[in-house]
């Protein structure tokens, strides 16, 4: 069977070079597409390895053996040159992630255009795979742009319940949260006050637990989906290092966190609405909260 490029959908007939994604079974990229900006930019979450078309064919025939060789080769070539891990990336720490159901690439909803099927549950695709959905996805289904849910899907849509900024005294602030490494009891700053107040001590960034839970859930579901696709349950995911059993442990844990935020949110809602009315916000507070909190409709 001829291999098609995931980016442009064209058959890869070139005699020489193609690229296979290390994370995805069915993600191949032709040489032209590999040279394009979007594939280079995506490499943090998506590793394309150069190979000849004939090697790709033999790899498909003996998947286990050649992927081992391939990994050994990459360990020496690429992994040493980049020490970035998804868990220390800005995308993971500061933005909501999702992954493409077609190519399994992980991306930030805020930073990249992605699409969501209106009919299927949680079927998202990346910008590069979206054109392929015309032929590959059920014809009656419609897609909408994921970032239409912004700002709900950003840090500005998340409240730090029970936390008060020690700089400006705002309660349940949104956005980034920083905590002093030295003071006890804890000394917290919102992102507006960070770097302006309490500068004699060092701070660390505290990722909102809702964002933490969401991103881990996405990565765990992706790990399981890839393992099922590859037919190898003991495989370690190359982005997270997780196996299927790691993912199975993580999913109930983060689902509990997501639920706890949801109930915390519901408890706080009436209080927040009162506060917002008091502050005479321009926006209708109820509409504003609905707009900012997509999970309120779960
Ligand atoms: Zn292509
Ligand atoms: Zn891929
Ligand atoms: Zn994709
Ligand atoms: Zn669909
Ligand atoms: Zn503040
Ligand atoms: Zn301090």
TrEMBL record:
Boundaries of each ZZ-type domain copy? Answer: 160-218
Cross-referenced InterPro entries, in alphabetical order? Znf_ZZ (IPR000433), Znf_ZZ_sf (IPR043145)
PROSITE patterns given for it?
ZF_ZZ_2
Superkingdom, natural source: Eukaryota
Q: Sorted alphabetically, which SMART domains does this protein's record hold?
A: ZnF_ZZ (SM00291)
Which keywords describe this protein according to UniProt? Metal-binding, Zinc, Zinc-finger
* Lineage, top ranks: Eukaryota, Metazoa, Spiralia, Gnathifera, Rotifera
This protein's name = ZZ-type domain-containing protein
Q: Which GO terms describe its molecular function?
A: zinc ion binding
